[in-house]
Every structure is written in C-alpha cells, then in structure tokens.
Design a protein that fits this description.
The complex is a heterodimer of chains A (79) and B (411). Chain A is α+β, with helices and mostly antiparallel strands and 79 residues long. Chain A contains 2 helices and 4 strands. Chain B is an alpha/beta fold and 411 residues long. In chain B, helix 10 links the parallel strand 10 and strand 11. The longest helix of chain B is centred in the middle third of the chain and has 15 residues.
Chain lengths: 79, 411
C-alpha cells in the first residue's frame, strides 16, 4: 500500500459534486480529509489517499479528468 | 548547549520530536524547528557573534545545528552589504543597501540553506543527500555533498540548460535528468523520499534547511550596526525564505540583539510570468491559487508555492507589499544594477531590483528610509537573459589599426 498527501483545488462548478465519494466508489482508495476550506465559489481539501500505487495513479487521473487541480499537499519548493 | 527542543506544526501547533520530516501528520501543515530561546538568550551576545568566524556560522546559536556537530562549510555567508549610492540616486533613495549574495561559494543564496541542511543531515546519520532543482539548489547540493564526502542525487528536468547541467555535474553527483517539467520532478522526489533513506534538502529536511535563510537578516542587522532597516525587498519563490526572514527579525528583536521598535516591512517580489502570491495579494485574498510558470526567472518560478499564504499574511502584518514585474522589466533591472553598481545578478535578482525600482518610481518611499534589497544569485547563471538577438552583446568591431579605431569609435 502507498499513500499520498494531496491538495484538491476546485472551482464553483465542482463545489456541489461529490468527487471524493466517487473517488472511493470507483477506485480502491481510502481517503482521509485533514483540512478543508470550501466556499460557494471555490474550495480546497487536503486529503491523505491510501491504496495500491496503480490505483492511486488512476484515482488522481480521474480527479484531474473532472477538472480538479491535484497538487502536493505541502506545496512545491523546487528551486 | 542543546538549543533545538523539537518541531511544531505552524497550523495546528502539534509538537514533534526532532526528525527528518516536514509535514504535520495531523493537518498536513508545515513543521518549524522549536528552539529553547531562554538557553539561547543566555548564550548569545553581539560580542560573541563578532568573535565568531567570518561566515554565516557566527550566528550558530540561532541555527538548528548543535555546537558539537562539525559543520559542512565552504565559507558561505557574511557577504557584502553595499550602500548603493548610484542606483539609489536613480531611484531617489539615499539609504539603499544591496545584500550581495552572489558572492557565496556557488554564487547563490542557496549555499546558506544547503550548508545547514547537509550539516544537520550528516550529524543525524544520513549518507545520501537529494534535491529537485532547476539550477541554484543543484549547484549547492552537489558542491556541499562533495565537501562533506556524501553521495548525492540531484534531480533536474531533462531540458535544463547545458551550462547548468555542467556546473552541477562537475562536483560528481548522481545527476538524474527527468523527462518532465519542474513540478513533475518535484513530485517524483516526494515519492522517492518515502522509499529511500535520503535527506532531500527541499523535502524531508526542509525545516532545518530553511533555517539557514535567517542568516541573511542576521548579517544585514550586524552590518547596519544592529539597526533594523525600514523595509526589505525579498524575491518570492516557494515563500519559504520570506517566512524565515520574518522569524529572523523577530528573533533579533526578542533577544535584544537588534535595536528597533518593530520588524522591517517585508516586501515580496515575483515575476508576472509566475506570480501566484502576487495574484492573491492583488485580489485581496490569502488563498494562493497555483499557476503554470512561464518566465525567464526560472530560479524562482514556483507555480504552487509551499508558503505563499504565509507570505501574504507576513507582508500585510509588517506593512510590506507584494509586487510583480514583467519579463522586460527583469532584463532592464539586471542591466540597471550592473550599470550603476557593478553587480551582475541573475534573473531572480532582476525581479527583486525590478520591484524595488517599480515601487520607488511609484512614490512608495520619501527617500531617506533605509531600504535593503536581497540580491540572491549571480548573473553568470543566466547570462543569456541579457544577450542581444545574436546571442552576444553590443561592441565596436575594428581592424587592429589606430585609423580604424578613430573611424569606428567615437571618443
């Protein structure tokens, strides 16, 4: 099993969509919300995803295909 | 003296023992080093600092490397603080200072943070150092790993410029060129750190690495006779450096080392081609939305900055601002700095000087304030940014005769 810490960022059109539920339903992925800030117009959710590496890849690709921006939870420090 | 007593989450305050990790398990917030400031206060003084080595390690009492640990050093830090009279005259600033960090061993600010990270990592049993980088960090990690006798893995995007590849590979790291963009390189490293017992400077040892940033402020204060400047201009990439500058000025004031009523205004500089923090500042929010970088200032082109939200809060709290400049303004500013002060900076320095000039020309200051700009990398790293269309620069081409000189060159 592998785990990934991700930040999901989404706009107004996705605020009402149950994407995290769909993620768990469609893939063998356990998600655990750590922090979130969702308003009427936009939102972000910090999630821990646990599953087999292949399944995590597919799950992230699914989220991105729905228009969600998937970033590392801790942000980037590449310099 | 044991001065590091643990680590603490910046978001939820959960405490952790000292270890190579950078994220809170509870809320995924960033972890910071916790010091025993009572012990530090008893140990530190201006006199002790003055008697220390002529490097950033004279401020060791405020760094997370204990006294009995041999440090990995190439003489980083204690770079010149230059009174910029000619640039100041152009901008209407009589007390403008430049912290010239191009003078570091691998010619960038990164030597400060990497010296701390590798010193800490070696003392804690790590035998391999890693990093994801677009240039400056790669140079520093490769050089300091060589100095320490440690193995290193440096991950770069496969399309990185040849000059940057060569100037890193000469130090003998395992240089891994990843077929992907910067973000993909970083994400690969985030996965590798879970599988290999390595100290990644910009990932699992980030809390210790970042503390090295504070030495820029300690030096600035000491070089100003322990006075606090009115404002400091800082380039923003991840924002990690900015946050530590805020911590450093707070430490200087709390410990009574620097004289002043308040922190300097901390002002952030970004390139418009990668300006997620500026965008949020402009929109009046502290929610930083990631962007896709497209700028010549590659060394600060972080689309999803780890500390962007904190930068906005700290700029606001100290009375600073966040400003951004265009690609042309970056190039013009590199030339302006070189022409007026004889300092050649890379594109990130062009961003800093560009924002300084933009704010000065917009009338932000009366003219007698003490302003300090951090110039964080050398121009030879990005010399092509100021080349002409033919890849070179303006010059007079003549025959080797006096006649030809007189014909072509107007004296």
């Amino acid at each position: 099993m592998a785990r990934r810490r991700v930040k999901l960022i989404f706009g107004r059109e996705l605020v009402t969509e149950p994407v995290i539920y769909q993620l768990g339903k469609n893939y063998e992925i356990v998600s655990n919300i750590r922090r979130a800030d969702v308003t009427r117009d936009e939102g972000w959710v910090l999630l821990e995803l646990t599953g087999e590496p292949d399944e995590l890849e597919k799950g992230v690709a699914y989220l991105e295909s729905r228009g969600i921006r998937v970033e590392p939870a801790e942000g980037d420090l590449v310099e | 003296m044991t001065r590091v007593i643990g680590m603490r989450c910046r978001e939820c305050g959960t405490d952790y023992p000292v270890q190579a990790t950078h994220v809170c398990e509870m809320c995924f917030g960033p972890l910071d080093v916790v010091y025993d400031y009572d012990a530090i206060k008893r140990a530190i003084s201006r006199e002790k600092i003055a008697a220390g080595p002529p490097s950033m390690w004279r401020y060791r009492d405020l760094l997370p490397v204990e006294d009995d640990v041999p440090v990995v050093t190439l003489g980083e830090g204690f770079t010149p603080l230059v009174l910029a009279e000619r640039l100041g005259a152009e901008l209407g600033l009589s007390r403008l200072y430049l912290k010239n960090d191009t003078m570091n061993p691998t010619n960038s600010f990164k030597d400060r943070v990497v010296s701390v990270a590798i010193s800490w990592a070696r003392a804690h049993g790590f035998e391999t150092i890693g990093c994801a980088s677009t240039g400056n960090l790669a140079n520093a990690v490769a050089a300091y790993s060589a100095r320490a006798g440690l193995e290193s893995f440096v991950f770069i995007p496969a399309d990185l410029e040849p000059a940057k590849i060569i100037s890193t590979s000469v130090f003998g790291p395992n240089l891994v060129a990843v077929r992907g963009n910067y973000d993909q390189v970083n994400r690969l490293c985030s996965q590798l750190v879970e599988s290999y017992p390595w100290a990644f400077c910009n990932i699992n040892v980030r809390p210790f690495y970042a503390e090295g940033s504070k030495t820029l402020d300690f030096e600035t204060a000491e070089q100003l006779g322990w006075q606090v400047p009115d404002e400091v201009i800082i380039p923003i990439a991840s924002g990690c450096q900015f946050v530590k500058h805020h911590r450093a000025w707070g430490e200087l004031l709390d410990l009574g080392l620097a004289e002043g009523e308040r922190q300097p205004a901390l002002t952030g500089a970004q390139a418009l081609g990668c300006a997620p923090v500026y965008n949020a500042w402009r929109d009046g929010t502290d929610q930083v939305m990631p962007v896709k970088p497209d700028t010549i200032a590659k060394s600060i082109a972080i689309g999803n900055p780890s500390d962007g939200t904190y930068v906005i809060r700290m700029a606001r709290e100290t009375g600073g601002v966040v400003e951004a400049v265009s690609e042309q303004e970056i190039v013009d500013s590199i030339k302006l700095l070189a022409r007026t002060e004889g300092i050649f900076t890379e594109t990130a320095g062009g961003v800093t000087i560009g924002v300084l000039a933009k704010l000065a020309r917009a009338g932000r200051w009366k003219g007698n304030e003490t302003i300090v700009a951090y110039v964080t990398g050398h121009g030879l790293k990005t010399a092509d940014a100021v080349a002409g269309p033919d890849g070179t620069a303006h010059r007079f081409e003549i025959d080797p005769t006096l006649k030809s000189f007189r014909e072509v060159v107007e004296v």
